[in-house]
Amino acid sequence: MLSAQERAQVAQVWDLIAGHEASFGAELLLRLFTVYPSTKVYFKHLGFCPDETQLLTHGQRMLEAVGVAVRHMDNLRAALSPLADLHAQVLRVDPSNFPLLIQCFQVVLASHLQGEFTVEMQAAWDKFLTGVSVVLTEKY
Q1: How far is residue 140's CA from residue 119's CA, in Å, rounded to a whole number?
Q2: How confident is the model at residue 71 (pLDDT cuts 50, 70, 90)?
Q3: Do 80 and 136 form a contact (C-beta atoms < 8 A)?
Q4: Where is the Globin domain (predicted)?
Q5: Residues sharing a CB contact under 8 Å with residue 103, sequence separation 6 or more, in sequence order
Q6: How far is CA 43 from CA 21, 40, 67, in A?
Q7: Under CATH, which number does the domain 4-137 receive?
Q8: 51: helix, coil or strand?
Q9: What percentage of the chain has pLDDT greater than the value 90?
Q10: Which of 12, 29, 48, 87 lies deepest, with the highest CB count within 10 Å?
Q11: Around Cβ 110, how many Cβ atoms within 10 Å?
Q12: What pLDDT shows up at residue 115?
């Protein structure tokens, strides 16, 4: 799926955000809910107006899953199979929402990393996150 250079770029970006998963994840959720309010339907457990603690907690969980994917780039299907089952069979998330999440995540990365998030890195992350999305929607 990814070339050696793309893998290195994904890992390099992950190293830059490691330790900030909760804040990046919370910002990702806020951006997702603001730009695509219909996505809130999948986060009912957060309530109509989630507080900072809820956003940080769920954001942390989301980005921890991204971290699992980064660590298992060579075998995303095996690494993400339980998450794919959860989203397809339990949560029943409409697969069309994953590209929206990817778009919002890339905006968060670009806004925080700025010049460190090069065009090449953005392309590698787009390819990587699209691969994650494909794996998460294969069980529908």
Answers
A1: 32
A2: very high
A3: yes
A4: 1-140
A5: none
A6: 18, 5, 21
A7: 1.10.490.10
A8: coil
A9: 84
A10: 29
A11: 15
A12: 94
Structure tokens at 58: 């769920």
Which of the four pLDDT bands, split at 50, 70 and 90, describes residue 45?
Answer: confident
Token pair recorded at residue 15:
């190293």
Cα(105)–Cα(74) distance, rounded to whole angstroms?
Answer: 22
Chain-centroid distance, C-alpha 47: 21
Return the ∠ at Cα 84 (arms to 124 and 101), rounded to 5°.
Answer: 50
d(CA 76, CA 131): 8
Q: Which residue has the tokens 């780039």?
A: 73
Candidates 16, 42, 11, 18; CA nearest to 29 is: 42
Q: How far apart are CA 18 and CA 78, in angstroms?
A: 23
Domain boundaries, the chain: 4-137
CB 76 within 8 A of CB 130: no
**Position 60: which residue type?**
Q
Residue linked to tokens 């697969």: 95
d(CA 16, CA 14): 5
- Per-residue pLDDT band for 39 (boundaries 50, 70, 90) equals very high
